[in-house]
Fold these 2 entries.
Entry 1:
Amino acid sequence: MKNEAQLFKSLADETRLRILWLLMAKEELCVCDIMGVLSITQSKASRHLRYLYHLGWVNDRREGVWMNYRLSVAPGSPEDKQLKLLADILGSRPEAQAIRDRLDQWLSAKSQPTSESAAACRCS
Amino acid sequence: MRAEARFFKSLADETRLKILWLLLEGGELCVCDVIGALGITQSKASRHLRYLYHLGWVTDRREGLLMNYRLCVPPGSPGEKQLKLLAEMLDSLPEAQALRAQLHDWLGKKRQPQVRATAGDKEESWIKTFS
């Protein structure tokens, strides 16, 4: 049952739960989006995203200097069911809702070329 | 989301998953059953059971010197949904099936005192000490 323990270990971290929660809201996010919304450093965001990548939760796609991530669990797999349950658990949390609101604000600001978040995602 | 991270941390350990799996199968179990079925020490079994107790997965009931444990997640709670999903994940694992067989083997021996005497020295001496 080592694999199952490892699966739960990958969820036993607040930052990773927040990242998964953000990825459940959008098809794909850039590392810079996760940094901006969660107010964490690039090194922290990348470290957790690589962890999630190695455990099979996410896929990556390089776009220039930034790496993009999306959920990669197979429909109907235990991981897929686990993510649905996680969404169910977090759905009622005001904290989780606030993070989603921040994501929407961040992405709409990013779509305006002169905004700070657009600038944050351009530099390397 | 600290509470949720802690919730998952309580499942991020092989021994605790095994204990929950046994409790899903066995209803109420004595610490000695967990020790016997998993072949772990009393200190390890008790430590993990107390951890699960403090996280709200199990409730305890004292019977003489021995402590009994059973699952106590409220119906429809995240904990209950998680346990159901865990049972589904583990059900197909040969390792989990073997554990289930070990538990039934252990419980069967426990009910027969003459056979019990031939059980592993460690478990047997431990039971003698406490019963």
Entry 2:
Amino acid sequence: MSPRAEVKLWIAQRASAAVLALCVVVHLVVIVYAMRGGLSAAEILGRTRGNVGWLVFYGGFVLAAAVHAPIGLRAIATEWLGWRGRSLSVAVHLLAIVLAAVGLRAAWAVFG
Amino acid sequence: MSTLQVDVWRGAEAGRFQRFEVPREANQTVLDVVTYVQRRLDPTLAYRFACRVGMCGSCAMTVNGVARWTCRTHVAKVAGDGRLEIGPLANLPVIRDLATDMREFFDKWARARGSHAPTATRRDDFARVPPASPARAAADAGIECIGCGVCYASCDVVAWNPDYLGPAALNRAWTLANDVRDGARAERLRAVAGDAGCHACHTHMSCTERCPQAIAPTASIAGLKRATALAVLKGEL
């Protein structure tokens, strides 16, 4: 991989980490709020269904995770397993697609 | 007179520690101990030193598990219990006993484009670089490296990834990246970017912790990460 491409991956991982830092805090606050408030699953769905704000928030959260995790795992696989090259690239791309698909499906499920 | 129990590495990659009894002296350095062993107990011991005063950087060894300049390490500081274990620097091939092969270490300086690329000719006037300018201050922070290899021997990433350029070479690249007289900035940033370069650093900071010159290679590496990112965003890399 060219130095330019590797630096782009690094930027993508740093930028997605910044998004994740914010999203994780909001997500934890929401969890604590929902549990302490004693909200039922139906009440939670009542608030998320049709709410574009939550869809955008959790959609962004999922995409940031789908960018961040595969880049990090790629570095770990290279460092600890000596795995490099095209097969690793294909594997981490697949992982990104799976994470994005599963996550977006969940975000869509509580919206629709 | 009290004595020190000194275990000294003998052999190359394969070898073992050999025990010597060395008289304890006032103000004794670890280099004094090694020299005593070689001059009085076993003249076949191989080790390396030159200046004895912390200027040349050739006497670095692993002392009780930590990479140090042996000439500037007092026995009193590291051997409170009267025991010393002295081995060659880690992360470098051992030639024999305490002498390592440092070729790869310095080859990595060259790979990191660690040489100055002049832009002026002899007909040009002296470059005027304000000492207080941010670039010069950044270069000054890393400029006193004498290439002893202590940071390289202390770095976990070097141990895991033999291609990693290491703290010293990257620190050198950072000082040159901040030299306004240098003409190879883009080429150098390309050389230090990626999995074998600054982006492999895990910020463990062992190099910064152990550097006898109190340089912070970690900060230099962070600077290179910023500089390469900016260069990519500007389309210069």
